[in-house]
Amino acid sequence: MAWLRFSIILLLNMCVLIAHSSPIEADAPLTMQVARSAADATYAVTVNLTSSQHSCDVRFLSVAIGSRRITLDWNGSEKLLNLASALSPADLRLGGTSANFLHFDPTERPGTRDRFYTSSHKTPFTVTARQWDLFVSFLRKAGLDLLFNVNNLMWTKDGSWDPSNADKLLNYSSAKGVQIPYFQLGNEPSSYQRNFYINRSPQKLVQDYRTLKNLLAKYPLYAGSKLNGPDVANVATSYKARVYLQEFVAAGANDIVDELSIHHYYMDSRKARMEDFISPTWMNYLKHDLAHAQTISRSSPRPKPVTLTETASCSNGGASGLSDRYIAGFLWLDKLGLAAQSGVTRVFRQTFLGGYYALISNRHDPHPDFYLSVLYKQLIEGPVFNLNISPPNPQLRVYAHCARTLLYLPGAIVVYYLNLEKSQTVLSLSQFQANDLHLYQLTPGDTSGLTSKYVKLNGQTLMMSGTKLPTLLPRLQTGDVTLEALSFGFIVVPHANVSLCVEYFQRDP
Ligand SMILES: *[C@@H]1O[C@H](CO)[C@@H](O)[C@H](O)[C@H]1NC(C)=O
Ligand SMILES: *[C@@H]1O[C@H](CO)[C@@H](O)[C@H](O)[C@H]1NC(C)=O
Ligand SMILES: *[C@@H]1O[C@H](CO)[C@@H](O)[C@H](O)[C@H]1NC(C)=O
Ligand SMILES: *[C@@H]1O[C@H](CO)[C@@H](O)[C@H](O)[C@H]1NC(C)=O
């Protein structure tokens, strides 16, 4: 039925004049224009391999969970550990609205309420020593590094931030040798008024950050930890969030934080429609958020990189039947591509666990985005390249990076794509015509199509076998690559021998 919604777009596609197949010289006149269906179109992709403005480290794709999830059982499940390990190396942000309600009490004995999870983000909860121990030990076993979101709503009588509970946590953790490489303070402070009927000015927040930094300096284990803030959401569309970020930077935040952090959601889950998830217009909106944040950062004499510490398709828990289905992969892969191209240092997927936008279900079954994330993690690291698509087509979005050396030799390159056309299209990697290619094509896992709960890799539905993940194997081929209608995937050129990639992996670690 959903296909009916696309019929108008499909009709339009049929009418578009598309140049004849095979690569076209940029300046050559289009002498052979023929009316064709998009199904026959071939697109020549030329990657600019001579320069790269940005580079992603291997932790670029990271994950987030709500602070309250720390009260779940992090010791019980081998399956959960295998799932988390598959995303390593990565950072895990423990944060969000409930961060401002977390109270650490090492003297509290674990009780029956220990593992009680309520859906209300806005009630205080206590974290016991045992819960903390199990959680940090899970992260260590999984190979995830912690970004800890500190409660910003504990204040002294004079209204300054009260660091004593954070001190308790650090004191306890330091004695146990718990690594916490990143901290941040509060969550979406420009919305405190709306959410909690209180106000924290950006100037006050900068003071709070200074207090936190001084606190960390007391502990040799945390003195070198990195800080990021202020975690405001949707700076392109929220004027309040944008002004908050501006004032945070103007108040000297960049002297304290290592990165400026923002959140991004394309839309509210209650308004999300299927067509939004495959819309280039929605995808492009992210560029405005990143550009605003970077412009604001550069307004400081000490510009800092921008990081996306909380981001997903839709706010308010994600859209049921969309954010947890195959179709979510389009917005997710495009976000990773755009963020990498603009030099964002991390993209923390909201969430690893919890909500419809989670990578895995509450029963720890992977959603399609989980497998997409694992592939991205296994394949991509290092310099990002610009590329040219000829003829241009907004329905075809393509990105290029160096390949990670987990599976490939230094010098290998990955081209990844979203085909938003409702028909097959053909990609021609003109520079690598003679090369062997490794294709990882992801398509819906069953007959539900775009809203499938499953995903196929090269035609095989990906399924766990007990607690074990399937191996993600490529299909080998040479020549032009046929992209399925409404699909996405990765094309690796194992022997591309791109010198910028070789050099990246030769550098000192
Ligand atoms: C590749 O990028 C560099 C730097 O932006 C530019 O100078 C050069 O002209 C580009 N090469 C091609 C073939 O577009
Ligand atoms: C964690 O799980 C292991 C294996 O099931 C068990 O031996 C251990 O006692 C548990 N630790 C805690 C603190 O519950
Ligand atoms: C941690 O707490 C203990 C007990 O209160 C105290 O003696 C110690 O100095 C604290 N450590 C640091 C680094 O503040
Ligand atoms: C890769 O390229 C370099 C020059 O950039 C060349 O010296 C080397 O032999 C090439 N390696 C392979 C395996 O083709």
TrEMBL record:
The keyword Signal applies. GO terms for cellular component: extracellular matrix; extracellular space; membrane. The keyword Acetylation does not apply. One of its GO terms (molecular function) is hydrolase activity, acting on glycosyl bonds. Pfam families: Glyco_hydro_79n. Residues 1-21 form the signal peptide. Keywords: Signal. InterPro entries: GH, Glyco_hydro_79. Coiled coil: none annotated. Belongs to the glycosyl hydrolase 79 family. PANTHER family: HEPARANASE. This is Heparanase. It comes from Candidula unifasciata.
